[in-house]
Design a protein that fits this description.
Layout (H helix, E strand, L loop, with lengths): L2 E4 L12 E3 L4 E4 L26 H9 L9 E5 L2 E2 L5 E6 L6 E8 L3 H8 L5 E5 L2 E5 L1 E7 L2 E11 L2 H18 L8
Length: 184
């Protein structure tokens, strides 16, 4: 006896231990069937319609269509809640370019208005279409017992981390109208 497994379409098969019928799109492979009790079932012949393989132009068009997921660059202290206050950002970098640091200063951030309702501040999350950059070095400033601001520090230890951060900052600054000013 033989087992028949149906597949949608085969365009190429390499080193398969199975017999492949390219015209019907059916793979025949051997398998053991051990009847438990005698059966009177004799079966009946069936005919399967021939499947047409997709044309090469259809395959090419599908593979060349890029899927782009656009995410608005955002800063978040509580995941899922965008910070509306635009920070002052100071960058430093070592002379050899191997590491660097970004210091974010937020005056009267909007997270203070909603932190009790939404959740706790767990870090600074920099989100864009490439993913999330996270920093857990976040400190609040208090004046007369009231929260005044937040200072977050993000340390970049490799040139790759620096480049990734700069790509995020370029997107974030374009979105929020920030401008880079080099220290004199």
């Amino acid at each position: 006896m033989a087992c028949v497994r149906s597949i949608a379409s085969l365009t190429s098969v390499t080193h398969s231990p199975r017999h492949v019928s390219r015209s019907s799109g059916i793979v025949m492979s051997s398998c053991s069937v051990h009847p438990i009790s005698p059966s009177s079932f004799t079966g009946s012949p069936i005919s399967l319609p021939r499947l047409q393989s997709p044309s090469p132009t259809t395959l090419r068009l599908r593979s060349l269509v890029p899927i782009t997921m656009m995410v608005k660059p955002a800063l978040q202290f509580i995941q899922g809640t965008d910070e509306l206050t635009i920070p002052d950002v100071k960058l430093t970098r070592s002379r050899d370019g191997s590491n660097g640091m970004a210091l974010f200063s937020f005056d009267q951030p909007s997270v203070f208005d909603s932190s009790g309702e939404v959740g706790e501040i767990t870090g600074l999350y920099m989100i864009d279409e490439e993913g999330v950059i996270q920093s857990t070095d976040v400190n609040a400033r208090f004046v007369n017992g009231k929260p005044e601001g937040i200072v977050a520090k993000h340390v970049m230890r490799t040139p790759k981390e620096w480049d990734r951060f700069m790509r995020f900052m370029e997107r974030y600054s374009d979105q929020n109208g920030l401008q880079f000013v080099k220290k004199q």
